[in-house]
Amino acid sequence: MMTQTIVIDPVTRVEGHAKITIHLDDSGQVKDARFHVTEFRGFERFCEGRPLWEMPGLTSRICGICPVSHLLASAKAGDAILAVGIPPAAEKLRRLMNLAQMLQSHALSFFHLSAPDLLLGMESDPAKRNIFALIAAEPELVRSGIRLRQFGQEIIEQLGGKKIHPSWAVPGGVRSALSGAGRDSILARIPEAQATVLHALDRFKRLLSHVKGEAQVFGNFTSLFLGLVGANGNWEHYGGHIRIADGAGNIIADHLDPSQYREFIGEAVEPWSYLKFPYYRPLGYPDGMYRVGPLARLNICTRMGTPLAGSELREFREQGNGAVNSSFYYHYARLIEMLASVEGIERLLDDPDLRSRSESEEEPLLRAHAGINQLSGVGVSEAPRGTLFHEYHVDENGLVKSVNLIIATGQNNLAMNRTIAQIARHYVRSPRITEGMLNRVEAGIRAFDPCLSCSTHAGGMMSLHVILLDSAGRVLDERRRG
Amino acid sequence: MAAKTLTIDGRLVSAQSEQTVLDAAREAGISIPTLCHLEGVSEVGACRMCLVEITGCPKLEPACVTRVVEGMDVRTGSDRLHEYRRMIVELLFAERNHVCAVCVANNHCELQDLAADLGIDHVRYDYLFPLLPVDISHERFGIDHNRCVLCTRCVRVCDEIEGAHTWDVAGRGGNARVITDLNQPWGTAQSCTSCGKCVQACPTGAIFRQGSTVGEMERDRSQLEFIVTARKKKQWIV
Q1: CB pairs under 8 A between A and B
Q2: Would you call A51 and B216 a contact, using CB atoms and an 8 Å cutoff?
Q3: Alpha-carbon distance A356 to A360, whole Å?
Q4: What is the distance in angstroms between the Cα of B134 and the nearest Cα belonging to chain A?
Q5: Looking at the predicted complex, does its ipTM rise above 0.95?
Q6: Considering the entire predicted model, what is its pTM?
């Protein structure tokens, strides 16, 4: 029997364009599986030469799902280059928008993209395994999920003037405050949002006993976990420092300065994907594989910092021993983060630093003004899918000379490849390969909620060093580019 | 000052003899699109947006530099004119790198407004994607040549109102660029008084205040008119 390759192209219900290849050996057993990201963007290159102040607006265009993540990481890199501390109201408003973003993006992942697999079944009729069939089957659940996403988007609109790509966070702060009416309309919807998340969490937990098989093989392996935590180890999404834990839950690095990420994160390139492969430097490539995002954040934090999500975290941790290692539980972690986001939004709205315009005649200070005081800056925040790094180098006038972006999905690249290989080995059996088997492979990717538009932001002429060796290791030819 | 009577779009209009067709039309409430025209400075007839048809005249004439004539019969909005205007704006978009969504002048841009008014939803020509510089060496202002349409408003306000003549045009055809002093970085141009009139005059996002982010570049052209009126008529009308 010939070796065979099965191609799933495109991968559906993910954000962006990708394909999966599954390689079978002579006996029809799965030898390997690869996740290929097939889109190409080029942001790092065409941002060169632009004024620093345009960067949040430019880079937020990387993504329509999580523009706020790029907006904030970019504005923070700008803050670093201006070398300013931003006004307290501006930081809290940025936090508010990031939580809203977390909420809407997670709601999209869970209700729109993954709920059809989870609630209708991995092997259900593919023609009906989508949100429309789910609406027919569970109208109330889907309606509440869609409203939850809309709630997150509405907060973004209240703050930034529009739901997608608000040009609101800027180097030095934010452009506008939250109006009194805006605050009231957000507060009024908190109880409904909280009820929706709690209900979804309850549904998911009841489902757990039925999906033990998936939990066992959907990317169930030990790896490092990386993310931001607050000063006291609390779950964090905007500031704080980097913590890295291993698959047994041991903290192996803590209090890492996010702006020094190059010291502990390396980036490898493979010829078969436009997506780079970041790794933890001290362990090398590919052993330094780490995961970021909801699962990582819940594995590394000491506590959630909000009451309801805090008690859910304790229950969540019962799924693992030290750390929860199965990537299937990204869904679970995402639901808990939605709860933390709703609680965090409610808490922030009561913060006196958020003085809104209608309650006081004077506008709170929102924007620090400064010139170029540093020639480089790094901005780091937690995007829904994981830790996001923006690094800019500028000239003395503030024109961008170079850009490096490390995106959450990229950091999960090694783990996603390993996940689909694990699922394929378990479920895919030649010669009779069913659609349901392949859907499980796709569902393994969906657990990570990858954002491929974000992750292939890089481009331009990659600097490349190619060495052609003969079988004895002698250099036959050598070419350099870039 | 003799009065002239002419017909614009079928309407009888009277105008002073020194007035242009554009002045006469606007006074009569008839709109003709313009881009390089700016109240308070001289006309150059460069953009050709205000081309009109005149009965008996074999070619199209720019309304901004065409004086009214007794008995003139002008049409400002035929299908032919619409097509030419659309073509001009499409060519402007294709010539440089205009990206409205991330531009400092988004929603406050005369080029964008023209495109919307003309119903432009795509550009038929190949984009040239020239590699053009951004100069933010000036302490307060910046120029992005990617967004410049060479209307020369900056050149005229600087020369005619401020009297500094920091701005001028270098090069020809597709290589033409507005320059400061002897084609040197704006921040080193000694003639520049940093008055900001060019910032108020620019129709697109080409000249902007430093630190502007997407859509923040709003301009106040009435400042220019205020200065011109004050200087010429000794009337300080805010």
Answers
A1: 40
A2: no
A3: 7
A4: 7
A5: no
A6: 0.90
